[in-house]
């Protein structure tokens, strides 16, 4: 938990420091998947309403990031990857981050309810709550399954986008959720394999620390196998099609090959090439999600001309 003792500020915080609180890189992924969920939905949305809806999702994601940084400032200060963040570096005070996170949370949810519908607003509110409270305040420090369960927070945006258009949920939006949910553990565990000391120093019970790197390699392979039917299954829904299926088959084969290569390795091999395979699989995982959602967008665009789908 964050120490509320005042932090000596080396210089006055600038706009860039406050923007960094919102985790813009994470926000970009949230906005992209939410936009896809909105655009592939079967109900057309007025461009202005769609713009306001995506803006609310972006602001809500930023609010979650600020609340996460407020709560995790103590462990961020112990990790090389995060020690330069605005709060542990002293550029932004914890109370400021908390205030920004709460204000943006309320603003985004209320505006989304007024501009679109209450179901979409409820999903956004639940997403913020899940990331800030369930994941950040509880799961992250309590269990090595933090990434597995906590991954739901990052999987909700396409469901919110879909709900903006339709006012509800469906098998399509649930499978988009499932795609991100099942992708998250192998994605982050691959990262944990080559930044393992960071989590240990911060006392975060990442799987690499609690069960060891060999067990983590096995988990990566298992979750990658479980991810495959979710990704392929989406191809046979109303938003899928042959193009998406081709992309899903290729990307899952690539990802699965990488997970298998990680599983075959041991610590000696990983250290010898400075985690080359693990780093490559992490990069592949980034391409993986982008490719799947781009394929869904392409299918939706083709359907406008009677060409997409089955």
TrEMBL record:
Molecular function per GO: protoheme IX farnesyltransferase activity
Gene encoding the protein: cyoE
E.C. numbers: 2.5.1.141
Protein name in UniProt: Protoheme IX farnesyltransferase
Function: Converts heme B (protoheme IX) to heme O by substitution of the vinyl group on carbon 2 of heme B porphyrin ring with a hydroxyethyl farnesyl side group.
Compartments where located: Cell membrane
Keyword Transmembrane: yes
Transmembrane segments: 26-45, 51-71, 92-112, 118-138, 220-237, 243-263, 284-305
Domain of life: Bacteria
EC top class named in words: transferase
Membrane topology: Multi-pass membrane protein
Reaction it catalyzes: heme b + (2E,6E)-farnesyl diphosphate + H2O = Fe(II)-heme o + diphosphate
Pfam families in the cross-refs: UbiA
Pathway it works in: Porphyrin-containing compound metabolism; heme O biosynthesis; heme O from protoheme: step 1/1
Subunit note: Interacts with CtaA.
Gene3D superfamilies for this protein: UbiA prenyltransferase
């Amino acid at each position: 938990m964050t120490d509320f003792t005042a932090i000596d500020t080396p210089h006055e915080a600038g706009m860039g420091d406050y923007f960094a609180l919102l985790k813009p890189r994470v926000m970009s992924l949230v906005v992209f998947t939410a936009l896809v969920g909105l655009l592939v939905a079967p109900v057309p949305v007025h461009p202005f309403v769609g713009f306001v809806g995506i803006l609310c999702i972006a602001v809500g994601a930023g609010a979650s990031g600020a609340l996460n940084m407020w709560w995790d400032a103590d462990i961020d200060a112990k990790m090389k990857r995060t020690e330069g963040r605005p709060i542990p570096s002293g550029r932004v005070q914890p109370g400021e981050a908390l205030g920004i996170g709460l204000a943006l949370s309320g603003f985004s949810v209320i505006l989304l309810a007024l501009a679109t519908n209450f179901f979409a607003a409820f999903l956004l509110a639940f997403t913020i709550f899940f990331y800030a409270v369930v994941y950040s305040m509880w799961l992250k420090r309590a269990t090595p399954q933090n990434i597995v369960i906590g991954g739901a927070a990052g999987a909700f945006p396409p469901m919110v986008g879909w709900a903006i258009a339709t006012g509800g949920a469906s098998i399509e939006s649930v499978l988009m959720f499932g795609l991100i949910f099942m992708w998250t553990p192998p994605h982050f565990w691959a990262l944990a394999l080559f930044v393992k000391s960071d989590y240990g120093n911060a006392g975060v019970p990442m799987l690499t620390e609690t069960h060891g790197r060999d067990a983590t390699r096995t988990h990566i392979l298992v979750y990658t196998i479980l991810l495959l039917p979710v990704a392929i299954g989406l191809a046979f829904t109303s938003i899928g099609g042959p193009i998406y299926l081709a992309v899903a088959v290729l990307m899952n084969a690539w990802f699965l090959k990488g997970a298998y290569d990680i599983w075959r390795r041991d610590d000696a091999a990983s250290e010898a090439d400075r985690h080359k395979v693990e780093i490559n699989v992490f990069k592949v995982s980034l391409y993986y999600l982008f490719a799947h959602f781009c394929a869904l967008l392409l299918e939706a665009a083709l359907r406008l001309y009677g060409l997409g789908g089955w």
